[in-house]
Design goal:
Farnesyl Diphosphate Synthase; two-stranded antiparallel ribbon
């Protein structure tokens, strides 16, 4: 695995602006931590496919983390989130307007880095992912409080809001060292599937995770009227009375903690958590199969470990 300190130093080195307030907000959210899975994927894929990490892979890895950070800044404003990774969200500290503009700056900075260190094929792939990210967020907003949300809707949402960026990280990493179309496509599939698994695990932890470990309030998706995988997969099993309770909770702008816990108990009772864990593990295995043709190197082993970490965190 690439030294975490190198990534942290690089993220701050390229975050350059004449507006000090912009740097303060960007630094605040970067200082909030995170595993830096996305830049790790870029750099590890480069070495796994090509045997080395070319110099241009580093700024491109940072660019992918800037895209992720920009999406977090915007998401917290849209969702009205209060905490992230155990700290007040940036919009609570600096205000919504400043955070939206800082997110815009980070999107632009990422594009700038790709224009210098990337190529047109990478830019097309990443631009398509950013487009899908916006589409996923809009679809999620449209489905808030809608008990008719389907699993198909759910996977469209999480593919856009989470998985495509993971896919692009792997695609970009491979693209820094090869022009082989099949290798790049397989790399993308790996990232896409671990991204889907990552979001499902996030949705599981929203029900059964510890607030201290998750870094944000639990049952928050339910509180915001979002139907995620653990709930969707048990809706065909619930009683009419339980369905009515669920419908009331997701439509309530300020549901009581008692009602939220009742819905959580329903999800657990009908096996929503176990079914979700199984699905996440299936997606991880699908991801692993996408890179079976890569040489058996320490970097490939690291990619397999990253895939396992995605689904095993907190379990």
């Amino acid at each position: 695995m690439v030294d975490r300190e190198i990534i942290e130093k690089g993220l701050r080195e390229y975050l350059d602006s004449d507006v000090k307030f912009m740097l303060e907000i960007g630094g605040y959210i970067l200082d909030g931590g995170g595993k830096r899975v996305r830049p790790q994927l870029v750099l590890t894929f480069a070495k796994s496919v090509g045997g080395y990490i070319p110099e241009n892979a580093y700024p491109l890895a940072y660019a992918m983390e800037y895209l992720h950070t920009a999406s977090l800044l915007h998401d917290d404003v849209v969702d009205g989130s209060l905490t992230r990774r155990g700290r007040p969200t940036a919009n609570r500290v600096f205000g919504n307007d400043a955070c939206i503009l800082t997110g815009d700056y980070m999107y632009a900075l990422s594009l700038y880095l790709f224009s210098i260190y990337g190529d047109i094929d990478m830019i097309k792939n990443v631009s398509d992912s950013v487009k899908k990210m916006a589409e996923g967020q809009l679809l999620e907003l449209k489905r808030i409080g809608d008990l008719n949300t389907t699993l198909e809707d759910y996977f469209k949402i999480i593919k856009g809001k989470t998985a495509v960026l993971f896919g692009s990280c792997c695609y970009v990493g491979a693209s820094t060292v090869t022009d082989d179309k099949q290798i790049k496509e397989n790399s993308y599939k790996f990232g896409l599937n671990i991204g889907l698994a990552f979001q499902i695990v996030d949705d599981i932890l929203d029900y059964v995770g510890s607030s201290d470990k998750v870094g944000k309030t639990t049952l928050n998706d339910l509180r915001e009227g979002k139907l995620t995988y653990p709930l969707l997969v048990i809706l065909d099993k619930v009683t009419p009375e339980e369905r009515e309770l669920i419908n009331r909770v997701i439509k309530d702008k300020n549901p009581s903690e008692e009602d939220l816990l009742k819905v959580k108990d329903i999800v657990v009772k009908y096996g929503g958590i176990d079914i979700s864990v199984k699905k996440a593990r299936e997606l991880v295995e699908t991801a692993k199969s996408s890179i079976r043709e890569l040489p058996d190197t320490p970097e490939k082993l690291e990619l397999l470990k990253i895939a396992d970490y995605i689904v095993d965190r907190q379990f």
